[in-house]
Amino acid sequence: MSRVWWCIKVVTLPAVALVVLPSAVTAQSRRVVCALDAATSAPIARVRGEVLGQGAGPRVSGTACFAVDATAADTIMIRRLGYTTWQGVVTAAADTVFAAMMPAAHVLPPTTARANACGVSRAADPAAEQRTEAACRRGESLSADRARTLGVGSTSGLVSLLPYTFPRGQRSDAAVSLRGARREQVVVTLDGLPLNDPSTGLANLGDVPLVALSGATVAPGSDPIGTGSGAAGGVLALSSGRGTLASVRVGAFGARRVEVASDLGQGATSLRVGAAYSDARNDFAFVNRSSTSGSVTVEDRVNNDAMRTSVLAQLQAPHVQIVAVASHASLGMVGPVNVRAYDADRSQNDRLFVRAVTQRGRAVFSGGVRAFGLAYRDPTRPVLDGEARAYSVDVDARRSLGLGVFRAGLGADRLRATGNVAQDRVRGFASISSTLRALSIDWVGGARLDGVGGNGLLPSASLSAERAISRVLVSARIAQAVRVPTLYDLFFASPQRLIVRALRAERVVLDAEARARWRAQTRSGTTVSLDGALVARTTRDAIVWFPGNFGWSPDNVGTEQLRGVEARGTVSRGPVSLEAWGTAYRSELVTGALRIPTPYVPTRAGGALLQIASSAMSLGVATRWLGPRPFTAGPRNPDFTLAGVSLVDLSVSTSHVVGPLHALLSLSLDNASDRAWQSTRGYPAPGRSWSLALTLRPTQTP
Amino acid sequence: MTVIENRFHRNATTHASRRALLTPLLLGALAVITACSDSTPTDTAPRAAEGIIVLDGFIQPGLTLLADTGGTGTSIPFGASDEFDAGGFNLRNDTVVAASSRGAGDQLYIAALSSVGTSVRRVQMPATSNPGGARLLVGSGGRSLVGVPLRDSAMVMLVSIAGTGAPTFERIADLGTCPTDVFQYGGDVWVVDANANCAVDYTPTGPMRLIRVPAAGGARQVLSLPALRGSSGSAIVRDGVAYISAGGDADFSSFPYVLRAGGAITRVDLQTGTVLGSRAMPTGSYGANTKLGLDGKLYVSFYEDLINFSTRTIAFEGATLTPSGVRVAGADWLADASGSPVGCSSGIADGLGRLYCLESRAGSATFVLVYAPDGSLLREFAAGQGGVDIGLR
Asked: What is the pTM of this model?
């Protein structure tokens, strides 16, 4: 994905620094240092920087950029709570140093998370290359700000713009599949803490307001070291938001959304508070091709409305960082298109997420609390009303020692639900990860040991190697990972409790990836990149829930295999950027004589994003193509396969400075070709729809 | 929503005023055609199965047609798993009928299996009427007649279809609290009422009932079946006797599950409308999936207990409900040649007494195991996935 829009912003950072620090670069030895989030490329405010050996104390910057007096060969160290300390040697040629800081809680698979390549070793390169290296190399990330220019107003919309993602939902809920994995095999994190509900193993992106985020990064492939259990298919890493903004959005089918956030920061301490409200009737028309009349009819969805309220608070102080998000959702629980039994059913979801990080010496401590509540109401059959409450608590500590980074943590899950369901579980883990450069190869390896109640000790490991050959970055990675059964897998299957069965953790016995990345920049300023990977994953004892009667509770039913190819290319020149990606997967469960393709995973899929952006206007065209998708847990069968579909979203946005405010007005047209399609069988997606959004920010932002 | 549903909506008002007149007329016409007939096979000579039909109820809903020796089967899809949830089907000649509940769209499925091809037709039942099954009845004038008990509406829908023409509908209302099966005998329509709160949570509210709707009109007869409790009752008619089975009543709201009442089979003399006797299922067991074998025996499959949910099958001599066949020592259920229990989720025998046993394995892979009368395993073969019911042609 080309990052022109964001690159433009990053390019402006030194200019901002020049304005903010007019004397910063007047001396030959004065350097401007700008801190960027290595995962999202977002500027990082309130960093503490110092030049080692000078004896001067650290300088705390209120903005992303600050100036230091340094000469060539000096070492600059930048610290920021929540990020791995950045350290680099200044070279004579560098008047501006971009420090791509790796979020401490955001540990991704090594080949995806190589922050050091953006760091000091490139400080001697020309500034242009620094900018592209620091801000543009991580195409798997997308900032919330850029998504807004593309007409996106929700977290699920943001994720759908990322490459290699396969968002799915039935009503207004949204989950994501990566690399052919089932949804519960993908961990969604916010600042490193998983959002996945411990009872079902799923994370609903619909409950996370966009205003709470600064961006998202997708990392297909197992992440056994950083995220641990559950990340067998990959990680979707969300990072908490920044800045002051207000946004209003209206759209088709009664959609309304209001988001506000205010950064009340003073000096080194920042308090950001915000709130979001959205509702929609979602009574869109759909084409029913499976009606019993035998004819194609056009009908309206009913009881498909959604209302969500969220509040958030983010505290950033020198020694503590706290993120809290609470949400409430009221949803109509419409059933499949020909099923009327659920036309009155309602659901209410409450979610609380709190995470705190602090640093003492060289150790970083973090803790988190998650609570999830579900209330289901069936007015026509109140006896079927049900409630569930799930809670999770996590604490962990990390510290760098000679061998690498050690990390250890404890956690506990609790579930209480209607029907006297009471389930509890404790967890713990310890891990070590280390980097090494040998034989001109960067090696990153790690090992982790998880202990989960009822599952014993579960080891996992990861090793990657990367080497630059001319302009081609060649890498390989192998890993093993586990996913312990969720509480739902073990005991609880709505609406009936089924057999209490001791399941084994499903184990990724091999997650392998061979990748090559190439990028070039012409003298005319055109940047081209190509990225291709061969991937393979074999999972033993896959846990699958086959719906049915008493004998068909979740079970370890066999071996799940995936083989595939991922490819992505970007071209950017001036205001034009184009990205295209594609995947070809064969993902299936093998159990006895059965070969069952993973439901809803297309054998071939792709997408493209074209954006033409200037400082005042952006035009965007996003396309996504999904090949045929099986929709049952059965053998390949054309009768049980959703047809392939191509979708096109259009957007135009314009930004202006109005007094002290920066205004972004965006108009989007989703599914512009009005294709009738279904994300999940029986649950039609809207046809052509529009939305109009106005986002205001103060012009003076950190 | 659909044209069919609108028709039901209109009929809801018109039929209310005409029901008293139309129902006796319809039943009278049926009486002429079906006098002294029933819905059981009439073949008497022992014969082997010509073909096997397995119903996939959950994974890729539809029928799998197999030769007696297995091999590559023919699949007949019914629809998506969110639009089909039947646990059984009814077969007569080359026609199969099944129905989905309110949670899967309230639909009647009619599959025509002919040597020149197959076809599946879906007929919309009233929204949220909650069909409890479907049974092929004897129609008139070359039309097929299907009876569909609508559990949440306390009525039976009679669907008459000729070829590919539009179906016509007639309803018999006021049939207890939860009708779950319907059959014809002596020209009358008989309905099994589970007497359960099916519209809410399927909790039994009393003993099951057998309701006789006279073809000539007049007062209905309601026969209480004290031994039968459960959320679903079904009937098999043979030689003027109805064998009505109920699976029992259990509380699944907390673990360990509690068995409130076990399953049982009650024999009813349809000529006199009297209960001949009842046979309780084994102590602690749950369920009573009853099928009439081509050898004349009743094959009843059930869960041995509410802990392991192991499936077992008993072969009853029809007239006396006496367990028969090679059985596990000290138990009534069938055993294989080694004495181990046969684990059929559904079983039926051919005319030679060979048991065709449906078994679900990992991944809901379905297998048919064929046992000789002495319990020896003759053969086994794959039969698709998600199998819930089996029939022989």
From this structure: 0.85
